[in-house]
Amino acid sequence: QLQFVESGGGLVQPGGSPRLSCAASGFTLDYYAIGWFRQAPGKEREGVSCIGSSDGSTYYADSVKGRFTISRDNAKNTVYLQMNSLKPEDTAVYYCAADRSYTIVLHSPDYWGQGTQVTVSS
Hints:
By secondary structure, this protein is mostly beta strands. It contains no helices and 11 strands. The chain has strands at about 5, 10, 20-25, 35-40, 45-50, 60, 70-75, 80-85, 90-100, 110, 115-120. Strands 2, 4, 5, 6, 9, 10 and 11 form a 7-stranded mixed sheet that branches. Strands 1-3-8-7 form a 4-stranded antiparallel sheet, with no helix packed on it. Strand 4 and strand 5 form a beta hairpin. The chain is globular, with a radius of gyration of 13 Å. About 35% of the residues are buried.
């Protein structure tokens, strides 16, 4: 059974730098592009970042560019989202997702994690 386990969320102070992890089980991430999404209360889901399976191509939404870094460790079957300089508006549930296609992963990925809450507040 394909499954993701996200971790690393929680309550963070403004300016904090948590790292989210997305660990896969039941399949190998090597052949999948991975995306990170977030959804804040009352707002639409937003594709935040993604990373390709082969050449490691990355994409960042303007809202996080320069502050977030996506990376993958295929040996650990895990993808990370390093978040720096967090702001209250980054508060959301963060989800990872996977798809074979880099161009599709931020639109309609095949597999989703359960999400992890990140709350930025002092």
